[in-house]
Amino acid sequence: MMPQEKPTALMPQDASASAAGEDLWSAELEQAHRDLSELDLRFRRYAMRTPDLLRGVSKYENMSDRAQVWPTFIGPAKLAELKRASLAARNLLCSIPGRFYRFDPARAAALYQVPSASELELLLSPPNGSETFASRGDFINTPQGFKCIEFNFTANVGGWEGAVLAEHLRGLPALASFLAEQPETLTFTDPIVRFFQHILDTAGAEVPAGGALNVAFVMTRLGDDELTTGSGFELTGRALQAAAATGAGAGFSISVRFCHYEDLSVQQDRVYFGEIRIHAIVELDTTGSPPAIYRAFKRGGVVLFDGPLAPIVNTKLNLALAWELAAAWLLEDDEERALAEVFPWTRRVVPGNVSFRGEQVAFAELLARRREHLVLKREGSFGGKDVWLGGDTAAADWESLSRHALAEGTWVAQELVAFVPYLFQCGEQGCDVHDVIWGPFYFGQSYGGTILRMQPRALGGPVNLCRVATEGIIFDVRGEGR
Fold it and tell me: pTM higher than 0.90, yes or no?
């Protein structure tokens, strides 16, 4: 029987111990923020002394999650480091299902829970959508660099509303006053604008020639998905204007339909919403593509984001299978380097022996002896569910969970990595040290901005918006300074 997750304790609202911030400041924090940019360091020093910036908010209008009122300012060197790590992680993980299929077709079909090897081969055969996936990674900045703890290959992922938060923050008088005195210039990369540009670039030559791009966002139930909220409609409206203006020039139109798959029809491998030809489908419906839609995609009649292959690429299983392929000498030299540099040690939780830090040990013994160094995750979990940090889990609960994971066979164990600490606003009036998850978007091979999730370190456990984490944004720094 699995242990039950304990309710999350709320952070104290007065935050009196950390209201000023100076008592928290350290050489480690100073170096962490200077590593981002000199502007980021100057802002933290300013914010700690500014009452209006020490005051928290729950949510801004048109935002679904709690907002972090302190932005992060990232310079060119650190942004380049994040881009290198995230693109390498994205490309390696995309390749794992195909590589593992060629390595062992029958085992690949069983692991990915596909009825047969031939069906898996059909999913992997081009076009399969992997070149154009909409995706967002989850990274931790560690003393050894950015580490990928997972990658989400789906458009139905959080973080699209970053531009709303950026606009709100730019309107804060205390922040605006500070920025007006700085020599640097700032830019913000809006993920949804970049996504629409990606859709336009991917939809094919006939779309610009026809003067219109028609996109269908297909949902499971109206209102369940972030892009169907008030903030989603607002973001989509701005994205349409931006994509049309920068992508195809005057006279080009882009339309969006929010619908269900039953609202679409297929005629001669073309997809229609009523009489309107649909050029691209963004799948927010996690139940999968209907056969007629999938055939139209395979025959070039419509573009799918992200399509039936996405759940196979999306599973945390690939984090472990990458290490198995490396052990079998089936990765290229640059991929092995990326695996060693960017990914924490990750293995499938199965009975038998496993190698950890140069030691061969029974998996059950490893889980017991190294509890504080490990994280357990269910392969198909999302939103922070079924993620257990050994150091934050009672020994008895961890023992129960370990037995369950070994018996079930659908879990991975990952080595815990250390967060670089950062200082952010916390509580009703104050600030505190936070652990941060960096969420870079990628659309195909193109970087699409980054969303942050940060949580007070004192809370412990997974950093998650369903707990007390806040959502933050980064501004790219140009000009003087780093």
Answer: yes
Separation of alpha carbons 429 and 427, rounded Å: 6
Angle between helices 27-36 and 38-48 (to 10 degrees): 130
CB 256 within 8 A of CB 240: yes
Please, what's the b/e burial string for 393-432 (b: 16 or more CB within 10 A of its CB; e: otherwise)? beeeebbebbebbbeeebbbbbbbbebbbbbbbbbbbbbb
In this structure, of 14-18, 211-215, 390-394, 407-411, the range with the lowest mean pLDDT score is 14-18
At 469 the pLDDT is 92
Nearest Cα residue to 458 out of 414, 416, 415, 427: 427
18 has a pLDDT exceeding 80 = no
> C-alpha 313: how far from its chain's center?
14
Structural tokens at position 181: 């005195």
In the three-class reduction of DSSP (H, G, I as helix; E, B as strand; rest coil), residue 382 is classed as: coil
Q: Supply angle C-alpha 357, 358, 361, rounded to 5.
A: 90
Residues facing residue 455 across a β-bridge:
435
Across residues 216-229, what is the average pLDDT?
66
d(C-alpha 339, C-alpha 333), whole Å? 10
Checking if the pLDDT of 97 tops 50, the result is yes
Closest to 205 (Cα-Cα) out of 300, 111, 113, 64: 300
The token duo for 156 is 């139905």
pLDDT tens profile 313-358: 999 999 999 999 999 999 999 999 999 999 999 999 999 999 999 8
Measured between alpha carbons, how far is 344 from 321 in angstroms, rounded to an integer? 13
